[in-house]
Every structure is written in C-alpha cells, then in structure tokens.
Amino acid sequence: MNEFPKKTFWTVISIIGVIIAVVFISLIIKLFDRGHIIFTDVKTPDGPELFSTDPILGAVSPSVVVVYFGNFTCEGCADLSRNLKSIVDKYPNDVTIIWKDFPNTTLNSESSNAAISARCAQDQNKFWEYHDVLMSHQSDIGNDLYLAISKELGLREGKFTRCVRSKKTEKYITESLNQVTTLNLTTAPTLFINNKRYTGNKTLPELETIIGDLIAGTK
What we know:
Protein name: Thioredoxin-like fold domain-containing protein
CATH class: Alpha Beta
Keywords: Disulfide bond, Membrane, Oxidoreductase, Redox-active center, Signal, Transmembrane, Transmembrane helix
GO molecular function: oxidoreductase activity
Helix content: 40-55%
Radius of gyration: 22 Å
CATH superfamily: Glutaredoxin
Domain Thioredoxin-like fold: 53-211
Number of domains: 1
Shape: globular
CATH topology: Glutaredoxin
Structural class: alpha+beta
Transmembrane segments: 12-32
C-alpha cells in the first residue's frame, strides 16, 4: 500500500488552516465593520442591542453613532428629529442615526399604531421619509394620516394598508420596548451617542457641541 507523503499531508493541513483563518477574519469584519456599528443581532458593549432591521440614516462608516429611542406622538421627539436631521446634513460622512421605537400608549393610545405604520413604510424602503412627515403632523395622528402619508410618498397602498391592519411590523416595536425595559429607560426621547446616554430633548447647539467634539477627536 502506498503511504500518503508527509510533505503532501502537511501541505493540505496548511491550506485548510488558511481557509479557516480567512473565514474567521471575514466574520470578524462583518461584526465590526462600518465604524462603531455592530449591525448583526448582537449586543454592543455598553449600549443598546442593534438589529439589522433597525432604520439607519447617515454615514456608512461613521465616527459617531446615535441610537435614538423615539416616540411619534412626543413633541420633544419631533423637535429632536429635526435637530438630528440637521446634524446628519452637516456631517454626512461622520454621523449615523439608528432609530428605536419607544411608544407610550399611556400618554397617547395611538403611539404604538404610529410606530407600526412607520415600520410598514420601512417595509417599502421609505421609513425616514415617512418619519419626517409623521413627526411634523403629530396633531393629526391616526389612520387617515397614515394613509395620506403613504399616498404622498407613493407607497403601494394595498400592501401598506394590509401591513398596518395586520400589525405585521409590531414585532420590531416589541424588540425595541424590550430594550427600553432592559436599559431602564424612562423618557422619550433618549439618545445613546457612542454609547453614552442622554435623556430628554437636546437643542441643536447642544448636539453640535457633543457630536462635533467626538468627530474632532477622531481626526
């Protein structure tokens, strides 16, 4: 019987080792690429858990990540959303906003439905456009407004209506609310800016100071 040459054997072992190393490195890159964003369904060291289904706005490889727990029926959230949009416009290559739902049906019974409707817009790749219009029309919150916004944005009406009525996207709101409980959050809005918590609304100058300093520290 012919013996398998030792040199060939160790060559094969070396090749297998290289393949395993490449696969492992690829997995690490997937977990920790895109700046500070860990975009697989795992928990970040000191902040909220991030999901691949979370709405994201801004830079692909940011130096500053803002996780935003917000409520579509909260006046302070509407103001903060405008301020954050200004920040992203000012720092398009440095800042990313990640949305987390924090509805409060005790304060407004429609807040959960509003969150569901926005996630239904996300199902048609229009979350942030829908978010902006919904935040600016809080006094009209309800099914008529949801449908009107969907038409304004050119969403497929039947698909959107079925999604809202069936509460198809409620699971995403539940995921966010589970984190609200885990993190002991008490107020919307709440921000985590590079994993540091900020409770309540923040003015545009305040955000520019906080985020501008963080960006400057990476240059």
